[in-house]
Design goal:
CATH topology: Chloramphenicol Acetyltransferase
Strand content: 25-35%
Structural class: alpha+beta
Order of helices and strands: EHEHHEEEEHEEEEH
CATH superfamily: Chloramphenicol acetyltransferase-like domain
Number of domains: 1
CATH architecture: 2-Layer Sandwich
Radius of gyration: 18 Å
């Protein structure tokens, strides 16, 4: 993947970036319920797993918007990745630990799904924290709490407040008024992502769910 540096002198967001990174450093989280009613029906009929479907949905929207791919690289340069892939948690039921896996993203869902299944078969039972070795720098984190339908979720990262990428946490879906709703928490850094961008992300994710027939295999 290509890391594209940002020229802060020409960047329209430079003032906001400097303010929320150096003067009033802050992150924020936003939790919303995603309606997966139609999506869940299709997945059951096609016998597809929900988790990789959600990973692909998240990665698709992340790759549409530069705000969610902006970060510092290993040399401390500010920029954004041309494309990112999800790094996600896999739970081990026997000892209640987890591992972090990542699957290379591609636009076509069937190919991504096949890659996910291959990664799970090869690494899913490993008890290493990163069974595949070093995590690529062009990944974003996703975790899942399938045991609780939370109404809010907040992470506190002590890294001098310079971690800029979004962090996603998926909760347990539940039924309400004839719908199937999935809690999703989005953690952002205000230096690169405002409430507007977070709202656009969640709305596009909902649209992705509503239009699942357009990208799921027949």
């Amino acid at each position: 993947m290509e890391f594209i540096p940002i020229d802060t002198e020409k960047w329209e967001r430079s003032f906001y970036f400097d303010h929320y990174l150096n003067e009033a450093r802050c992150t924020y989280s936003l939790t919303a319920n995603i309606d997966i009613t139609a999506l869940n029906t299709e997945l059951k009929s096609k016998r597809l797993k929900l988790y990789p479907v959600l990973l692909h949905m998240l990665a698709t929207v992340v790759n549409r918007h530069r705000e969610f791919r902006t970060c510092f690289d290993a040399s401390g340069r500010l920029g954004y990745w041309s494309r990112m892939s999800p790094c996600y948690t896999v739970f081990h039921t026997d000892d209640k630990t987890f591992s972090n896996l990542w699957t290379e993203y591609c636009d076509e869902f069937p190919e991504f799904y096949a890659r996910y299944l291959a990664d799970i078969r090869k690494y899913g039972d490993s008890k290493h924290f990163y069974p595949q070795g070093g995590e690529p720098p062009y990944t974003f984190p996703v975790s899942c709490l399938p045991w609780v339908s939370f109404t809010g979720f907040n992470l506190n990262i002590y890294s001098a407040g310079t971690y800029l990428l979004p962090i996603f946490t998926i909760g347990k879906y539940f039924g309400q008024e004839g719908k199937i709703l999935l809690p999703l928490s989005l953690q952002c850094h205000h230096a690169v992502c405002d409430g507007y961008h977070a709202s656009v992300f969640l709305n596009e994710l909902q649209l992705r769910s509503d239009r699942c027939l357009e990208w799921l295999p027949a």
